[in-house]
Amino acid sequence: MSRLDSVIRRLSAQRDILNTMPERLKALPGPVLEVGLGNGRTYDHLRGLFPGREIFAFDRTLNAHPACVPDEDHLVLGEIEETLGKAKDWLPAPAALAHLDIGTPDDEVNRRIRAFLEKTLPQIMARGGLVVSDQWLRSTRLTVLPMPDAVPAGRYYLYMASGPDRG
Ligand SMILES: C[S@@+](CC[C@H](N)C(=O)[O-])C[C@H]1O[C@@H](n2cnc3c(N)ncnc32)[C@H](O)[C@@H]1O
């Protein structure tokens, strides 16, 4: 498979799974988190899918297309280990959806980020909230859900959160 094929398959998988989110989450209130704003393409898609929801977008720097820049109350710049780590203190409600698109070619960086996300996401997601991730995550508070048939195995992962630990 060429790298072009691979990118197309990855982005198609991303869009296919995200397109199922409004129906799955129609009964669950809460904001949407876009972790890895990048160019803002997925953010643009998400705001079309979720016109009534707050969407908070995270990235270390702003590189988004000018038409896809969130307002300053919804743009969170900095390393996610810093910003997402503190999000439970200021999010208006636990998140209904988190979309993660932050993988790098560096396995060691990915391992560190995964460990951080496995610890942090359960604390900021609503009970029943969904995590759509380009990273394979393992946490007793994130239940693996099957992907739609259209999404090739290993491209994207879907989890349901059991909600913040109140203990
Ligand atoms: C593949 S791009 C996201 C593309 C985006 N979904 C789009 O539609 O354009 C990944 C983004 O994650 C950001 N990123 C990766 N690791 C990060 C980290 N540890 N903290 C903050 N941002 C990070 C990068 O700066 C990059 O913009």
UniProtKB/TrEMBL annotation:
The keyword Methyltransferase applies. InterPro entries: Methyltransf_put, SAM-dependent_MTases_sf. GO terms for biological process: methylation. This is Class I SAM-dependent methyltransferase. The lineage of its organism: Bacteria, Pseudomonadati, Pseudomonadota, Alphaproteobacteria, Futianiales. One of its GO terms (molecular function) is methyltransferase activity. Keywords: Methyltransferase, Transferase. The keyword Transferase applies. Transmembrane segments: none annotated.
